[in-house]
Amino acid sequence: MGRYTGPRAKLVRKFGENIFGNPKFDKILSKKPYGPGQHGSGRKRVSHYGTQLKEKQKLKIMYGLYERQFRNYFKKADRMRGITGENLLQLLERRFDNTVYRLGFAATRAQARQLVLHRHLTINGKLVNIPSYLLKPGDVIEVKKKSKKLDVFHNALRIRKSNPYEWIEVEKANLSGTFVSIPERSQIPVNINEQLIVELYSK
Predict the structure, then answer these.
(1) Does residue 37 lie in a domain region?
(2) What is the tally of structural domains in the chain?
(3) Chain CA centroid to CA 101, Å
(4) Do residues 79 and 19 both lie within one domain?
(5) How many angstroms separate the CA atoms of 64 and 98, rounded?
(6) Is 107 found in the same domain as 39?
(7) Do 85 and 120 lie in a common domain?
(8) Number of H helices and number of E strands within the chain?
């Protein structure tokens, strides 16, 4: 299955939360706090498998991944020491495009991915255009000198008035930031029950 390219508002209403982080979806949820479609407000009985699958789909779509990518992240998380579900979330948070989004240089992860692909950002002074690149503690992300005048970065930073994340540091004046440490599960602000995903893939 490819990456979802349909109406994002429909997914936001399906999951009942702003999984993309764009403020415009908060307004949509406040106006229509029920699922899409003719019977969106009806109650449906969902099996345990259905709940597991929905949780996996939510996390996959949230980070903008293909099914194969997501499964590979799970396999890698399962081979690592520690709790598989937490490992999975930490791997996703270490992605280059996600960190660009967390730094406030992009309004959404999709926009962050596009900025990375278009070669607007560097890691430790070297141009990197791989959204899935996994950052390590101490890595410095910076907007390329020629790209610092682009409105997309400044508009995104105006939306993000402060840095709420403990594992990154932001220097707005320089359009740069540092990936300080790998976040603990308690620090990752995603409304996900990762254990359900582990159960799904462990069958």
Answers:
(1) yes
(2) 2
(3) 8
(4) yes
(5) 10
(6) no
(7) no
(8) 9, 5
Helix (H, G, I), strand (E, B) or coil at 169: strand
The first and second tokens of residue 62, run together, are 């949230």
**46 within 8 A of 54, measured Cβ to Cβ:** yes
* Residue 32 forms part of a structural domain: yes
Structure tokens at 166: 């403990």
Per-residue pLDDT of the chain (203 residues; tens, 9 = 90+): 456 666 666 776 776 676 676 666 655 666 665 666 554 545 567 899 999 999 999 999 999 999 999 999 999 999 999 999 999 999 999 999 999 999 999 999 999 999 999 999 999 999 999 999 999 999 999 999 999 999 999 999 998 878 899 999 999 999 999 999 999 999 999 999 999 999 999 87
- Are residues 195 and 154 both part of a single domain? no
Q: How far is CA 91 from CA 87, 95, 134, in A?
A: 6, 7, 7
Report d(CA 48, CA 200) in Å as an integer. Answer: 10
**104/108 Cα distance (integer angstroms):** 9
Provide the token pair at 198: 């582990």
The CATH number assigned to the domain holding 124 equals 3.10.290.10
* Global pTM value: 0.85
Q: Are residues 176 and 195 in the same domain?
A: no
Domain membership of residue 171 as a residue range: 95-181
